[in-house]
Specification:
The structure is a single chain. The protein is α/β, with parallel strands linked by helices and about 400 residues long. The protein has 3 domains: about 140 residues, HUPs (Rossmann fold); about 140 residues, Argininosuccinate synthetase, chain A, domain 2; about 40 residues. α7 packs across α8 and α9 packs antiparallel against α10. The longest helix has 24 residues. The termini are far apart. GO terms for molecular function: argininosuccinate synthase activity; ATP binding.
């Protein structure tokens, strides 16, 4: 693309050095009007400085939107109904935020008459895919600008030199190489790069922002009760909370008890392996509690099918296919399974551990008369098991006879 090919672009803007450079680069390279969009997803940072910096750079249309409730209600909770974990461990905190940011960018582009959108993801990572798949799913003809795949800057020094030449303020700690990069929202924090690049080196304690060390957590356990309705948490210790408020409360409880740390080497969608340090305190509690309530409300076949489909669902989220038909199809199946996943789970939080200690539901499938060892309360005839076992053993006995004949 060339100057004049884009008239107006909506930029996903954090107010940090990189997106501030991108903002100016768009003005210089494309000569276009830039609209900034900053999403409040609960990252814990003051967002007004982003507005002031955008104003200083001559931006007239500035959007700073509080998306915390929508983020948890419409993205995090549906994902947790699936118990989604990428490669069996990662709770997808960064992955699930990108489709919401991109969705809002497209909405703003339509509202202001922009013909392009822009993100600050690099050409090595997953985020470029997540942003752009969402853009194209929601606005097929949108023009996408990805500066890291277009510009000629070869180093951090070149970026800083551009910033200085264009009077872009640079925080003192940005004049050298950052020790690691951070992405954060209400669900998690993610740290990667630099001091974390060697997978053999233990992450320094200062990397962790959302949790205290399990060794420093209280010696006394914290016990809480989480109430669910149709697979979503709605209350803690009897107090009903909005989705964002509930996750915030779980984050506080998880942080205080050293819960939710993960040191992971994962397979990026673009093909390389990367090492990340994740902190998902509230999400870690929620996952265990949700599985706890499912254990008494889901039929075996339904529960096992969900577990079989979960890796596929998690991959779709990780790869950026939130708005794909296959993810929506899986979501419909998952949501159907949650119709009677209601009740209360009691969990104990202790030095990095989440331990389910009780669960109850008006829709429980757990029948004490069936499982009891007490005589006189038995609703199960032990003799029925003999025929059941013989039928299941039929093919194994047939195979065994053939093997014995072969070995003779």
């Amino acid at each position: 693309m060339s100057a004049g090919s884009v008239k107006k672009v909506v930029l996903a803007y954090s107010g940090g050095l990189d997106t501030s450079i991108i903002l100016k680069w768009l003005q210089v390279t494309y000569g276009c009007e830039v609209v900034t969009f900053t999403a409040d997803l609960g990252q814990g940072e003051e967002l007004e400085p982003a507005r002031k910096k955008a104003e200083m750079l001559g931006i007239k249309e500035i959007f700073i939107d509080d998306l915390r409730e929508e983020f948890v209600r419409d993205f995090v909770f549906p994902m947790f109904r699936a118990n989604a974990q990428y490669e069996g461990l990662y709770l997808l905190g960064t992955s699930i935020a990108r489709p919401l940011i991109a969705k809002r960018q497209i909405e703003i582009a339509r509202a202001v008459g922009a013909d392009a959108v822009c993100h600050g993801a690099t050409g090595k990572g997953n985020d470029q895919v997540r942003f752009e798949l969402t853009y194209y799913a929601l606005q097929p003809d949108i023009t996408v600008i990805a500066p890291w795949r277009e510009w000629d800057f070869k180093s951090r020094e070149a970026l800083i030199d551009f910033a200085e030449k264009n009077q872009i303020p640079i925080a003192k700690d940005k004049r050298g190489e950052a020790p690691f990069s951070v992405d954060a929202n209400l669900l998690h924090s993610s740290s990667e790069g630099k001091v974390l690049e060697d997978p053999w080196i233990t992450p320094p304690e200062y990397v962790h922002m959302r949790t205290i060390s399990p060794e420093d957590a209280p010696d006394k356990a914290t016990e809480i009760e989480i109430e669910f309705e149709k697979g979503d948490p709605v209350a803690i210790d009897g107090e009903r909370l909005s989705p964002a408020a509930l996750l915030t409360r779980l984050n506080e409880l998880g942080k205080a008890n050293g819960i939710g740390r993960l040191d992971l080497v994962e397979n990026r969608y673009v093909g390389m392996k990367s090492r990340g340090v994740y902190e998902t305190p509230g999400g870690t509690i929620l996952l265990q509690a949700h599985r706890g309530i499912e254990s008494i409300t889901l039929d075996r076949g339904a529960g096992h099918l969900k577990d079989e489909l979960m890796p596929r669902y998690a991959e779709l989220v990780y790869y950026g296919f939130w708005y794909s038909p296959e993810r929506e199809m899986l979501q419909a199946l998952i949501d159907k399974s949650q119709e009677m996943v209601s009740g209360t789970v009691r969990v104990k939080l202790y030095k990095g551990n989440v331990i389910v200690t009780g669960r109850k539901s008006p829709y429980s499938l757990y029948d004490q008369d069936l499982v009891t060892f007490e005589e006189g309360k038995v609703a199960y005839d032990h003799r029925d098991a003999a025929g059941f076992i013989k039928l299941n053993a039929l093919r194994l006995r047939t195979l065994g006879k053939r093997r014995m004949k072969f070995e003779q």
